[in-house]
UniProtKB/TrEMBL annotation:
Keywords: Autocatalytic cleavage, DNA damage, DNA repair, Hydrolase, Nucleotidyltransferase, SOS response, Transferase. CDD domains: S24_LexA-like. Its EC number is 2.7.7.7. One of its GO terms (biological process) is regulation of DNA-templated transcription. It comes from Methylophilus medardicus. Residues 81-200 form the Peptidase S24/S26A/S26B/S26C domain. It is an enzyme of class 2 (transferase). This is Translesion error-prone DNA polymerase V autoproteolytic subunit. The gene is umuD. One of its GO terms (molecular function) is DNA-directed DNA polymerase activity. Residues 1-26 are annotated as: Disordered. Belongs to the peptidase S24 family.
Amino acid sequence: MSEQLEKKVGGKRPGAGRKPGSGLYQESTTVMRVPVSQKAVVSDLLAAYAKKQQRQQYRYDLDSPQGFEQPGLHVQALALPLYQSKVPAGIPSPADDHVDRRLDPNTYLIDKADSTFFVTIQGESMIEAGLMPGDKAVVDKAKVAVVGDIVLAMIDGEFTIKTLAKQPNGHPKLLPANASGKYQPILIQGQMQFEIWGVVTGSFRRFR
């Protein structure tokens, strides 16, 4: 009787313990002894390795923007006609009575020149928000981001543009705008370095 009880409560149980690949380092671990003086060094190396493993999980979702640019220092004011009538594929009448008002593209796109910069969109993760590859996104670093804003964020040293949302635990998450399923939400976890650099307030592109 005692032998049967010992077999039930002792030894390794099939399926027990942490599953391989489910830990911080995404692979099996082992125990080793290190000198006390080198403990901090080894811990830093392991932390850097863990971040590298995490980046590999979402690196294809970032579509990191490129070409950071600032508005020109001496931008000439423009006053172009803004027509009342909406013509899908034609030329609006040049008659003065069709002009609603004059519009300056600079003031329309930029709220504060000293806090605004432009980045070039890469990839297709935000196409359903109207941000296409090659577009210039207008980013205002002075605006406070709220849930629902499109933001320029940095994750572990890499930039991405996504829509800001929240996880059930209150931590941020970044949502793509592409229904193809190619891009997945990025869940921000405690070990990640996460920072919002600005709110995307608009975009523009050239056709020729």
